[in-house]
Design a protein that fits this description.
With 210 residues, this protein is of the alpha+beta class. It is built from ten helices and five strands; from the N terminus they run βαβαββααααααααβ. A five-stranded mixed sheet has the order 4-3-1-2-5. The two termini are 21 Å apart.
Length: 210
């Protein structure tokens, strides 16, 4: 095993995205392996039979293959912004459960045989909870960004981008502002590096880059 963790990722996956945000904040340097989902590398499947990103393979052999667990592990190494102090488990669970359910059926109605408008409306109802929360503070768990923001933001981004014109017309001024700030942040720019898909034998690609 190498001295650094190996991190299997896919740039556009919201689960991998939030794990990358936490890795950046903690400063945990790992070997980034971008996965091509149509040709998953054998090393990923060997590390985690679920064979979906993100996966963090630690030098001692431990494998962490759930995005929130990766976030908590890396922030446990270093948490300079205090993200773990701003982690609303119930709000994150609502995002990962009902909101993700409706997001998938809104974004991919043919795949799910779903009523796109119905699931878009249900997703909008859940965003109203974020709107109310952001009306009281600049971030979802107080005046500064934390784990709650990083865990939820990639999914709201995906919902917004499904039909940006419609989303921008919705009466969600606080959500719009919060989303714009996340998208414009240096942290998000650093998380959205665009590596080529990893192949065995490639030289290590460090993330964050030195």
């Amino acid at each position: 095993m190498p001295a650094r963790p190996i991190f299997y990722s896919f740039r556009r996956c919201p689960y991998a995205m939030r794990a990358r945000l936490a890795l950046l904040i903690s400063g945990t340097v790992c070997e980034l392996r971008e996965v091509k989902l149509s040709a998953k590398p054998a090393a990923l499947i060997a590390a985690s039979p679920k064979a979906t990103v993100p996966v963090l393979h630690l030098p001692d052999g431990e494998v962490i293959d759930q995005s929130l667990d990766i976030m908590r592990w890396t922030l446990g190494q270093a948490d300079p912004e205090g993200w773990l102090d701003r982690a609303d488990a119930a709000l994150i669970a609502a995002n990962d459960g009902p909101f993700k359910h409706h997001l998938d059926r809104y974004k991919y109605p043919d795949r799910h045989g779903s009523d796109r408008a119905e699931h878009r409306a249900a997703g909008l109802d859940l965003l109203a909870v974020l709107e109310e929360r952001l009306g009281r503070a600049s971030h979802l768990d107080g005046p500064a960004r934390g784990l709650t923001d990083a865990a939820i933001f990639p999914f709201v981004r995906q919902f917004a981008e499904t039909d940006r014109g419609w989303f921008d017309a919705q009466p969600l001024p606080h959500v719009h502002d919060w989303l714009a700030r996340q998208l414009a942040s240096a942290l998000f720019a650093a998380a959205m590096v665009r590596p080529d898909p990893w192949r065995p034998g490639d030289p290590p690609l460090l993330f964050p880059a030195a």
